[in-house]
Design goal:
This protein has 363 residues and is of the alpha+beta class. The chain has helices spanning 3-8, 99-148, 157-246, 251-362; strands at residues 9-22, 30-32, 38-45, 50-57, 60-66, 74-75, 80-85, 90-95. It has 4 helices and 8 strands. The longest helix has 112 residues, at 251-362. The radius of gyration is 40 Å and the shape is elongated.
Length: 363
């Protein structure tokens, strides 16, 4: 996503694990971010002195986390660990194949966190030194102005105003970049949720298809049995009617009772089969509803991918604008330096002129 950033970053440790993210709704359940185990790597940016954890699944970043000294990696079981990323407003979970892999990743996390802490302390010391220099510089300029009491300092105001506007533009671009990154992160989380929902629907769809095929096969078999039972029922009814017509007694009455009982049992069995067929028809309707829900989820996922592509394009444009602004600022710094050098020459010439005038007055 950020090619020029990735070029200056170097991997320092890698491991394979199943990646999970906490459910943003419940904050309790884990949502799988990958179908299978993926590579999770620690990267170090020497230019910015920053450590990051990055994992890529397919064409998107599953994990893009900058390590801070406040982060803590917690082992929750023999093969599972987790840590919280406040910037992304989520909790990452990693499932390893062995306990040894989890231990190695945990130790590397502690090592990198300590390195990030040292890097922050050095950065703070450097900022303090720069602040001291910044405080001393205006005092030196004020003394020089008081001594000369001349207006050449006004020549530098134009570039200073341009530099201030350039820095303001940089701050605005940085804010826009952070906002777009946040939107992209939220879009990635929504996309992961949609993919998890799609996987669940596909699994349910597969089960329903298998159940529907089995039900269709059973329905054909039951229809044949039902036809046979109906033929048997008709035959028995004919026998009962024939016996009633002959008005038989004794054994014929006993046979009539048996036939009546068999007829009742067959009717009860037919009723049960009708109920089963009705249930299967309802399941078939539910299967069509699940297909409709799956299609809607696929459509939502496609829309989310298009939105992510648009956000990536906007980020690239923002980065290009930021790069142009940095080049403009460097050019302005060069012009300011050149103006300062010219000012120094003018001051030196004024001092020579002043000394010449003093000598002339003394004569």
């Amino acid at each position: 996503m950020f090619p020029h950033h990735r070029e200056r970053e170097q991997p320092i440790f890698s491991a394979r694990a199943h990646v999970f993210q906490i459910d943003p709704a419940t904050k309790r359940n884990w949502i799988p971010a990958s179908k299978h185990a993926v590579t999770v790597s620690f990267f170090y940016d020497a230019n910015r002195n920053v450590y990051r954890i990055i994992s890529v699944g397919g064409t998107k970043a599953i994990i893009n986390c900058t390590i801070t000294p406040s982060m803590t990696f917690t082992k929750t079981s023999q093969k599972f660990g987790q840590w919280a990323d406040s910037r992304a407003n989520t909790v990452y979970g990693l499932g390893f194949a062995t306990e040894q892999q989890l231990h190695q990743f945990s130790e590397k996390f502690k090592e990198v966190k300590d390195a990030a802490r040292l890097a922050r302390e050095k950065s703070q010391d450097k900022e303090l030194a720069n602040t001291a220099l910044t405080i001393a510089a205006p005092q030196f300029s004020q003394d020089l102005s008081d001594e000369l009491q001349s207006p050449p300092v006004m020549c530098v105001n134009g570039p200073e105003d341009k530099l201030f506007r350039s820095q303001s533009a940089d701050i605005t671009l940085s804010s826009e970049k952070e906002r777009i990154k946040k939107m992209l992160s939220e879009g990635s989380i929504c996309e992961m949720n949609l993919e998890a929902e799609l996987f669940t629907l596909q699994d349910s769809n597969t089960k329903l298809v298998a159940a529907l095929h089995e039900a269709n096969a059973n329905v054909e078999q039951w229809k044949k049995q039902l036809a046979a039972y109906q033929e048997e029922t008709d035959r028995l009814r004919d026998q009962v009617a024939e016996l009633e017509a002959h008005g038989g007694q004794g054994p014929s009455d006993l046979l009539k009772d048996e036939l009546t009982q068999s007829l009742e049992e067959l009717e009860a069995l037919l009723k049960a089969k009708d109920e089963e067929i009705h249930i299967l028809q309802n399941k078939k309707a539910e299967y069509h509803e699940m297909e409709q829900v799956r299609d809607e989820a696929i459509h939502r996922l496609q829309e989310m991918e298009m939105r992510n592509s648009e956000l990536e394009r906007r980020i690239q444009n923002t980065e290009q604008n930021l790069s142009n602004s940095l080049e403009e600022r460097d050019r302005m710094d060069t012009e300011i330096q050149r103006a300062i050098e010219i000012l120094d020459i003018k001051i030196f010439d004024l001092n020579d002129l002043r000394q010449s005038l003093v000598k002339l007055i003394d004569k």
